[in-house]
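Exercise 4. Each item below gives a protein and its sequence. For each, produce the structure-token representation.

Item: Toll-like receptor 2 (Suricata suricatta).
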Amino acid sequence: MSRVLWTAWVLGTVTSLSKEGAPDQASSLSCDPTGVCEGHSRSLTSVPAGLTAAVRSLDLSNNEITYLGNSDLRGCVNLRALRLEANKINTIEEDSFFPLGSLEHLDLSYNNISSLSSSWFRPLSSLNFLNLLGNPYKSLGQTPLFSQLTTLRILKVGNTYSFTEIQKTDFVGLTFLEELEIDATNLQKYEPKSLKSIQNISHLALRMKQPDFLLEIFIDLLSSVEHLELRDTHLNTLHFSKASINETNTLIKKWTFRNVKITDVSFSELAKLLNYVSGVLEVEFEDCTLHGLGDFDVSDMGEIGSVSGIETLTVRRLEIPFFYSFYDLSSVYSLTGRVKRITVESSKVFLVPCLLSQHLKSLEYLDLSDNLMVEEYLRNAACEHAWPLLQTLILRQNRLKSLEKTGEILLTLKNLINLDISKNGYLSMPETCQWPEKLKYLNLSNTRIHSLTRCIPWTLEILDISNNNLDSFSLTFPQLKELYISRNKLKTLPDASFLPMLQVMRISRNTVNTFSKEQLDSFQRLMTLEVGGNNFICSCEFLSFTQEQQALAQILIDWPDNYLCDSPFYVRGQRVQDTHLPASECHRVALVSAVCCVLFLLILLTGILCHRFHGLWYLKMMWAWLQAKRKPRKAPQRDLCYDAFVSYSERDSHWVENLMVQELEHFNPPFKLCLHKRDFIPGKWIIDNIIDSIEKSHKTIFVLSENFVKSEWCRYELDFSHFRLFDENNDAVILILLEPIEKKAIPQRFCKLRKIMNTRTYLEWPTDEAQQEGFWLNLRAAIKS
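Answer:
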């Protein structure tokens, strides 16, 4: 019984986990508000459940889906794009796409679909893109697959290994395609007129390894294809026969050979084909290999005559394994007389024979980028009467090193207007050079030059000197309309007086840190400016100019995203448009003025407060205290010279000198008093005299009166005693009240004096003569104590 329960529990757990799996798959989709759902590369094994009409685009590519059922996409009635490539789909039910009447893009490439059904595509009335590449079907079926797809514009079918047959019914119902790609690498059977049912194809890309059926296909396409592209084909066995072609007029305007292998013989056959059929204007070879020596049969060349009509020839990355034994190309000279545009890129070309150049009488455009041209062989190519109509010459990324020689060599090109010699190693520039007189455009970018000289022709209208090491621009170009000088080391915009006709300037990624309205206004014809990517100093003036000029956005093509502040440091990395500095940065004059006014008011207020609350007195007190701190706390007994120092007001001198001095100094034994009139040392600072006299006296007598409180020097004497004597808590001070003084008459700053007068006994001068004798007795006793 327990075993049965255990089994039931395990089954229940597995069931619950399987139920939880479906929500996990649905949740693996990420959808935005517009209905675009992404679910690629998430290891899904089936189409997520719960898809609704809100889904507009569904990407389920690169998963593990193997099966499409009738109900998987039932709710996606508004689906526009469905991507199911790179799964493992091997079964699609008949009505899987039935709800998808609005579907425009369907990609089923690189799955395991071995047979195709027309019922899948019948409901897809809006479909314009269908990709069925990379599935292992052998053919497109016995019934027309695409007859109902009247809106289809791009179709891709076939595979590398198993697709072996193209039938008459395959493309029935298709009348116009913008692009048709057929991977028939292993094609073994082609029914004539299979592709003729399509009335018009803008671009047909045909991948086939052997050219066995190439002529038959070519015949069917003569009147329907505009651009024929042949891929991954070995043309070794190609043989052209006039008898196989009944019509010579063709719709084909361009023929592209991509990754095609050609021999000397097959090149001759191909040339015959192109010559016999009129209308081809452009031929392109890309990533092709020529297994030969250029030994084209002379008799064959005689039949060819000239390839009429071809105006553009493009060769990119052509490989010739035995190029070192190659012939002089004289056999193809006759094919080039009417060619107007030639591009030969990345093909290790180091020489163009003079005779070939002279045969290119109609050539207007020549691009020899990324090759091995040097001045010595360029002189041979640009010989006398070479390229008589050439207007544009591109020698980008070759091995040229002398700007002076390059200009001199090209003097033979009387009609040359545009010259691109960028990405060459010129490094320096001579003072003077010679150039073709009609030259208007010159590209010297990426040449590592450090400075500009008069070597550059002053008649230019367009000059590109970007990505060099220039730190200044001081040449005059009266006709220059466009200047490209990005990625250099310029610190400021060029002077407008050098460029009076300038309309376009690109000076991004230099070291420009600012520009002003005046600078821009000086370029009167400027319509386009690019200054982004520089390290801008976001000063108040610069920010004010850039943020307030609404019309600036019409001139600055990279505004505002590429304009970032570099300083001040606290706004580094911010967009110039969004930066705002504090008022202290932008109104310094007003700020300094305000600060000065505030300081003046503070000083004035401080002066008033000092006057009102005796601030000056406190300063003097502090000075006196500092002076006192330099002296010993108490003079030794042997250094005392006086019994008492008398501090009094000059207005009380009559009482001091006539009464006190007589009573004390003429007493027996006599007291020795220190009076400022008599005992101060002449020439010595008065503060020092006061301090020394107090310190050399056993007692200090203060004769207090209204006059004393008002006396400046009495205050100093009292100030010092205030610190020096009162703080020591001794009895060295004797107070004599010469006349009654109200407490409020004593300044508040003499807080300790007021306290002492409240807490200590002081001598009061009696007005009654009978009591005066007792006063003198008490005073003598106080001095002796």
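Check: The radius of gyration is 54 Å.
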